[in-house]
Amino acid sequence: MPHRQNLKTMPATREPASLLSVDRAVFELRRGRAVAVSAANGDRALVMAAEGSSPQSLKDLATMAGGAPYLAITRRRAEVLGLSTTAEVKEGGVLALTLTGGLDAEAALHMADPMTDMPKESLERACVSEVGAHGPESAAIGLVKIARLLPAALVAPITMADSADLAGWTSRRNLMLVDAGDIFQYERTAARTLKRVSEARVPLEDAEHTRIIAYRPQDGGLEHLAIVIGEPQTDTPALIRIHSECFTGDLLGSLRCDCGDQLRGAIGAISASGSGVLLYLAQEGRGIGLVNKLRAYTLQDRGLDTLDANEMLGYDADERVYLPAAEILRDLGLLQVKLLTNNPDKVAALSRFGIDVRERITHAFPTNKHNELYLQTKKAKGGHLF
């Protein structure tokens, strides 16, 4: 994944333009349009989200770019299809997939979407190859992930004779041009530009002395929330819970997960301790978005566990990032914390981003018949400690 690459910090003066170009490209992909990607190695390509492709759009992509389109997919998805180039499935890797006889839109959709029936003939024609970690293929996957679409993209190298001036070439065709580096930096840049935009007192059922502070990145993207209970002190470790939003569990009371119990339980525990903060992060479904989470639920109904379902879609088991949490804690002056969590990855992430986690406090609740397998999977395969 782009946010796990080893990247240098972007100059602050570059951040607004960087975020804006990625946001505009995401909007174009979600509309089913192509965008141009320019990589540091000089490679240039038109890319389009695989799930929004059609025979006509694929034809138009090839005509505009000049190069034959192929499919960029994650190594996870290739492994699921039995097409990985190595025995080891490297987290976050991207591969290029071609079909003998040429790629067609129907085959591309089947390769990208596990909700469709894969024709055996398409698999027999498929071949994957390695691509560079910083090339347009990896950037395309990063872009569709930011867009919360299926992590597969059509890529067509730009080979047209009049494309030497790529900015002019894309402008004449009303195409968005985005730098691959801006895509790779996006999540880090968005987190580092978080600013307080509103704050209000909101008495809660189990914590009447509560304030909610909204943080918004510089590009106007999704807000994260700090639910501040009581008056946490900056000179002693504060009790903290990092909670990723869960529409189905938090709002609807879904029994498929324990998110609603964890949310309300954390508010009660923090209130009972006197003070602390619950960070409510906008990263539904372990970072894959609500639509993909619903797709994962359908795959679970077919027999997969929660982690395997994410990987069947082409995502890693957990795509969440915790830099936003660390940045918000820094803004609140809470550099020492006691963390309510069963997930050791959260402890490691906060520590890596400069937050001193003094203690991990188990945060578990009774199971029900609908979420028993989910919780067992988190323990057995996700490394959660109950």
From TrEMBL:
Entry's cofactor comment: Binds 1 zinc ion per subunit.
Enzyme type, top EC level: hydrolase
Listed cofactors: Zn(2+)
Binding residues annotated for Zn(2+), in chain numbering: C246, C257, C259
InterPro entries per record: DHBP_synth_RibB-like_a/b_dom, GTP_cyclohydro_II, RibA, RibA-like_sf
Domain GTP cyclohydrolase II span(s) in chain numbering: 196-361
Source species, domain of life: Bacteria
Pfam families in alphabetical order: GTP_cyclohydro2 (PF00925)
Metabolic or biological pathway, per its Swiss-Prot or TrEMBL entry: Cofactor biosynthesis; riboflavin biosynthesis; 5-amino-6-(D-ribitylamino)uracil from GTP: step 1/4
Gene Ontology cellular-component terms listed: cytosol
Binding site for GTP: R241, I242, H243, S244, E245, Q262, E284, G285, R286, T306, T341, K346
Any GO MF annotation of the entry: GTP binding
Active site as annotated: D318 (proton acceptor), R320 (nucleophile)
Catalysed reaction, written as an equation: GTP + 4 H2O = 2,5-diamino-6-hydroxy-4-(5-phosphoribosylamino)-pyrimidine + formate + 2 phosphate + 3 H(+)
EC number(s) per entry: 3.5.4.25
GO biological process: riboflavin biosynthetic process
PANTHER family, per database record: 3,4-DIHYDROXY-2-BUTANONE 4-PHOSPHATE SYNTHASE, GTP CYCLOHYDROLASE II-RELATED
Entry similarity comment: In the C-terminal section; belongs to the GTP cyclohydrolase II family. Belongs to the GTP cyclohydrolase II family.
Function description: Catalyzes the conversion of GTP to 2,5-diamino-6-ribosylamino-4(3H)-pyrimidinone 5'-phosphate (DARP), formate and pyrophosphate.
HAMAP family for the chain: RibA
Protein known as: GTP cyclohydrolase-2
Organism ancestry: Bacteria, Pseudomonadati, Pseudomonadota, Alphaproteobacteria, Rhodospirillales
